[in-house]
Amino acid sequence: MEYLVHIAVMACLYVILATSFNLLIGFAGLFALSHAAFYAFGAYTTAILSTQAGVPFPIPLLLGVVLTAGVGAIVALPALRIGGHYLVIVTLALQVIVLQVLINGGEFTGGPDGIAGIEKISLFGWRLSSPHTFLPMAIFGAVVCTAIAWRIARSPFGRALKAMRENEAAAQAIGKNIVLMKVIVFAFSAGLAAVAGSLLARYISYVGVDSFSIEETIYILAMVILGGTGNLWGSVVGAIILVLLPELLKFLALPPDIADKMRQVIYGLILIGILLVRPQGILGEHSTAPALARRARKDAHADEEIGTVNGTEPGEVTVSARGLAKSFGGIVAVRNFDIDLRAGTITGLIGPNGAGKTTAFNMLTGFLQPNAGTIELRGRSLVGLKPHQIVREGVARSFQDLKLFTKMTVIENVLVALPDQSGDSITSVFFRPGTVRREEEENFNRAVEILEFVNLADKAHELAENLSYAEEKLLVIARLLATGAEVLLFDEPLSGLDPATLEEIFPIVRRLARSGKTICIIEHNLDVIRGLCDVAVYLDEGHALATGTPDELVSDPELARRYFG
Fold it and tell me: What is the model's pTM?
């Protein structure tokens, strides 16, 4: 019986490790292989403080969490510039470095022999010295850590993490500070792993490097993948299965000389079979949009209220750029580019491929910094601001390749873009839950209104990847509108659509302009330019050659020769 309780204790510790790792990999999309190192930080902090300094429980645990969270935040720094397999290599290097430090740490870390004699936990005179007495503590730790991870995952901050996972550029384009988000999620993931390490040290009264190797990280990763990335309950299930399954296989009657190898083969086949049947994991990812019964009420003025910009005079200049220049090495993409974007006006940016249109958009929205020139929004300079800061100032953009959050639902795509959400702050998530919950209800209704505005309300709970191409284009408009930005820049928003679909979308864009929005679109389709735009700017070789109405540009003999044919 004591052995079964021991298995239950270990399952609880691995639940903590798997759920915390899922925050990093499943929700934030940061594939790091340093989780066993964070596990080790918690264990060794507890071991050193309790054996060498006599610090009583729970101080070593708390200090271990703080220290490890700080290390996790530092580890996040490489993730700010690199990702994918490069991040795997960097975090793998951290794992190796940590193990080498522990091995060569002499008496401080116990070297290869580790640290023994760690004091057991004593609570109110009750010493947790056996599996039976320690199990309630392990369960309590697993419940608290899972609850913390669940609170993060189900919050607007967790939704923003998923958006960052799907596409970092698109997350920035809806106003998310991905630098801060990466630091926070690394810190929380590392800190929670440290809890498991500290409890392990107290439970077995010993820590050694063998418990924190790269194989341990891969073992925890297998739990996350088996249970389902992006689903914390899946991590709980995956941890329990992978802890219990090897023990259950010991009850198989096999020839003694091949028993161990056969069990490993059977173990592997079972895991392969599960993932073949459920490639998304036992419990796949699901929507975190609030499941509210109440829908937004649509009235006769709803369309006019969507996107309305107050205090704006039609024709007033909102964005003004002068002398913009951008070069890449010896290639000049944009030179001496001037443009004025006006409230209530749809401006078309046209020109041949390679003319510098998207580069101009990238400079206006902070994805590229100009080599020269000025960009002002109502007199405020935007030069030097990050993309998420420019969105918050009031200028947002879409992308030619859409960059939807395909593994999120339609309504999640809109919800995540809504500005000024208290739940985007991790402190509000934990210390102002009532405010966050009330705002979620309001934001849900707001998101439904926006989807109704673009005729996508009936697709609210569809995954974005299941939409038709025309519906994807509408979702791009909805997500951009949700940012609340005054200036909307669309990069080829209507390309590839048939004339009938264009006639359905034109009124939506025109209503946005009537509401006071400043709209600029890049488009190659002259029918779109002539049927939708009030003003057109012709770019060639990075320079604005002409500005006027679409009909004026089309009738210009020189432009007709160069572009219109």
Answer: 0.91
